[in-house]
Design goal:
This protein is mainly α and 391 residues long. The chain contains 15 helices and two strands. The protein has a single domain, classed as MFS general substrate transporter like domains (Growth Hormone, Chain: A), CATH 1.20.1250. Helices cover 81% and strands 1% of the residues. Helix 4 packs antiparallel against helix 5, helix 9 runs antiparallel to helix 10 and helix 14 packs antiparallel against helix 15. It starts with a strand and ends with a helix.
Length: 391
């Protein structure tokens, strides 16, 4: 029996976001045992993130074209179920190359999970896009907090790294059950979008600015949580539990920040929110690059998490808003573009981390954030000038 309930469906959608967040972030904490299992070099392990986001991009671009034609609830259920299956297969991979194939598929179906799980909640509450997209990302943060800290604890207790992936798969199955039980309500019918129509989206100047911003931001964010755990182990000889806790602290303060940012977007122009947070993010990331003690790393990780908290969801919410009737496809394109940042930067940062130092690696992330400051400031100025008729 299917029950009509917007809240119930939203919980199922948010659990799918939680599941994807847990699955991708525990990879960060478990990089070393995974690499040891397959005798693979740790400095090149960033290719796991590259594989994940490669699938993420491909699947999201495809769904950006066909999203208006498909049963979104059905696709979300299928992708969530497939994510659980590929996560289980990940634990049985006989070689690192097969592991990469499963990671590509996890990134692909997981990317659709995150996009649909987030945006469907927004689409049935269209009057407050900024608030609800920030709200959905709180659940991403919860998954990203619980996953790494639990994985780090279990690793420290001597448990096999595969256990956390099995747990993640179970959450995916639970999400599928909830999504099947409740009917989606309040979703407005989307106009059909053809492939050629996407060119119109890319003619929107502010949308293109948001595309560049999301690529840079995603690279910076994944760079921080993707490598901080490993770098703490190597530079400060942190225990598995403490290294996992570092990722959890980052995401814990991301959650706190997103609670406040969700309300902030109701009061401030979304571009101003992006500008303010990216300025703070640049400053604290730069200080993190200069950090010489473990205690300062912990404190600055919390501050970086707070400042990064609302940037991704606010960029996606504003970018989708600029696309008008193409907003559904725009969400997929923006999130896919974020995947490009996650695919390119973490691998590069891992190579730099070995060749140079944590200071250089984090310093580059601070530079990426500085560019976002410039982009958001330009977007605000550009809009003011157009209103005045200057351009």
């Amino acid at each position: 029996m299917v029950v009509k309930n917007k809240i119930g469906f939203s919980i199922g959608s948010l659990l799918s976001v939680f599941t994807f967040a847990m699955g991708i972030t525990i990879v960060s904490t478990l990089l070393i045992p995974i690499c040891k299992n397959f005798n693979y070099s740790i400095d090149k392990a960033g290719i796991l993130f590259t594989a994940n986001f490669f699938g993420f991009i491909i699947f999201n671009v495809i769904f950006s074209i066909y999203s208006s034609k498909l049963n979104k609830k059905g696709i979300l259920i299928v992708c969530t179920l497939l994510y659980s299956i590929f996560t289980l297969l990940f634990t049985t991979a006989p070689s690192f190359n097969i592991l990469l194939i499963y990671m590509i598929m996890m990134g692909g179906v997981g990317g659709v999970m995150e996009t649909l799980g987030s945006t469907l909640v927004v689409e049935i509450n269209q009057e407050r896009e900024g608030f609800f997209l920030n709200f959905t990302q709180i659940f991403f943060g919860i998954g990203a907090l619980i996953g790494p800290v639990t994985a780090g604890y279990l690793e420290g207790q001597g448990y096999n790294w595969r256990i956390m992936f099995i747990v993640t798969a179970v959450f995916g199955v639970i999400s599928c059950i909830l999504l099947g039980l409740f009917k989606m309500e309040g979703l407005k019918k989307q106009e059909e979008v053809k492939a050629k129509d996407l060119r119109k989206v890319f003619k929107i100047r502010e949308f293109n600015i948001m595309i560049v911003a999301i690529v840079l931001y995603s690279g910076a964010e994944v760079g921080v949580w993707g490598w901080i755990s490993t770098l703490l182990k190597q530079q400060f000889h942190a225990t598995p539990f403490k290294s996992g806790l570092s990722v959890a602290i980052f995401w814990g303060f991301m959650i706190i920040g997103r609670i406040f940012t969700a309300k902030l977007t109701d009061k401030l122009d979304m571009r101003k929110v992006i500008l303010l947070l990216s300025i703070a993010g640049t400053f604290f990331t730069f200080l993190l690059a200069l950090s010489k003690t473990e205690m300062s790393v912990w404190i600055l990780l919390a501050l970086v998490g707070l400042s990064y908290s609302g940037i991704w969801p606010t960029i996606v919410a504003y970018g989708g808003k600029t696309a008008g009737r193409f907003s559904s496809s725009a969400y997929f394109l923006l999130i896919a573009a974020g995947g490009l940042g996650g695919m390119v930067f973490p691998y590069t940062l891992g190579i730099l981390g070995k060749a140079a130092s944590i200071s250089i690696t984090i310093g580059i992330i601070a530079f990426l954030m500085l560019i976002i400051v410039g982009l958001s400031a330009f977007s605000i100025k550009d809009n003011i000038n157009r209103k005045k008729g200057v351009i």
